[in-house]
């Protein structure tokens, strides 16, 4: 058996060798022979392209095999596709960051705002809730319905029953209120998944009713965010349900996928009838606010019926919102409408948003009607905090328009605001949202408007902060910068509230650090020190102080000159907690990254002082990563210290540094190496 198996294997092997001889072709070079490069391919550190003639690589043009196994980096060099060079080219060509270019879609803009709204607008008061939702289960008696009319009538009775019975008033804390809304969200999903459509509608109606209640105004923006999330989920459920019906052929389980830009003539009659039923249900809601919100939530479903119905409904609801008497509830209803308008097919959303903005400007005087003045007194909030409640909605509506607007459109909006009177709230939105280039080119005009703005409760410091943030992104022409700085200096001297002044400095520091010398920075820091000296609440401004230092060290043109002014190091003494001071010192020393040598004794002394703060924070419990980071920072500073030909002074520095930084081994090693190098240099120069 073994012999037979061996003979078979030999035959198979001979056949394989014969076939191999017929297929194989002799080659001149080994396939794995390394490429011979006769000239180095230069890295493209400039924006110019490398010509083909400069790449003389010893590759045979007829040898396709070698090109197939060429490594990716060589291919990139041959194809002039070095990605790092492309990035460098983009950065070199960009002198001023283009803050005017729209980055996000309106939906993304709103999604980015939601977290900050929920964190900012809170309350410690009890929130009253009138509940008509059955948490113990739906107790409606189900009747037999023999006709379509009976079915519709029964469903309407269910909705009416929900509105008229089992109402009770609850007093909830903010956490309990958020938990209840989260519970309703889960109940909505559960009811929909179990095909309890009427129950789902009841939940959505109850949620929408909560938006008509503004008793706790300070929490209203957060409540709006939470509840519109539920409305959006309901709208997606209805749309997906109708789309599924439209894609499912009657009497068959086969699904025909609709295209993204489908038209109503592609929709089956059953899907259209179901769609109409949904809008009839919504039309039966008696109260204005929940009816508008729920219709807006499902307005995208109009695309199953008509291409014009959805856009027409948006403009209809735009006018109907004028019927909402409470200006806070009205502006957030317009905010939701403008957000939903971005999802409606065949809709000129910008014209719809512009019309809503016009209504907001026209109805601005309603912000201080009798009812709102009574609410302000009842909640005991300042006029500034009251006006700030409108900011998220107004900013979002304005951002949609500005996102891709031309200067002509911005001029039109700006002039409309002027014609209706100078409102601090609207002016602040313009300064915050309009393109920085637009604001920068009209800085003098905006400063005059701020000075002439009516005292309607919005602080001048807030307007100046918005202007400063914009100019920090896009500074005005060089001939206007000093007059602008003098003008804002006059305003700052009138700020008696420290909170307003610190916010003012924080907003204007990017503009000052980028466009002026350290003298102006020193003046600002000195003013802060004089205002806060003797106060015991410095810790309240730690985060703002840290941000001010970060802006200065990152944006200042002459980094070393900071240590020559009188107020920079004393400003660091405002950080009283050791952990915070260490963090700030790390930030400052890390920004000292250039290769220039430091020779000035005063600067060397200041840097050594900051390094000693880092060193003294090290103990036996310091993590290895922290110790390594601090060691690298101190070593980097030591390498920059250069006394030139004064070898004795250089050696004295190393000796003092060894005593000051004795607890970090990496620093000691660096000092030993530097000392040895210094001795070798000195020995080489001796005769």
Automatic annotation (TrEMBL):
Q: Which UniProt keywords apply?
A: Endosome, Protein transport, Transport
Q: What superkingdom heads the lineage?
A: Eukaryota
Q: Does Protein transport count among this protein's keywords?
A: yes
Subcellular location, principal: other
Quote the protein name from its UniProt record: Uncharacterized protein
Q: Where in the cell is it found?
A: Endosome
- Specify whether Transferase is a keyword of the entry: no
**InterPro entries (UniProt xref):** VPS35L
GO biological process terms, alphabetically, are: endocytic recycling; protein transport
Family under the similarity heading: Belongs to the VPS35L family.
**Gene Ontology annotations for the cellular component aspect, listed alphabetically:** endosome
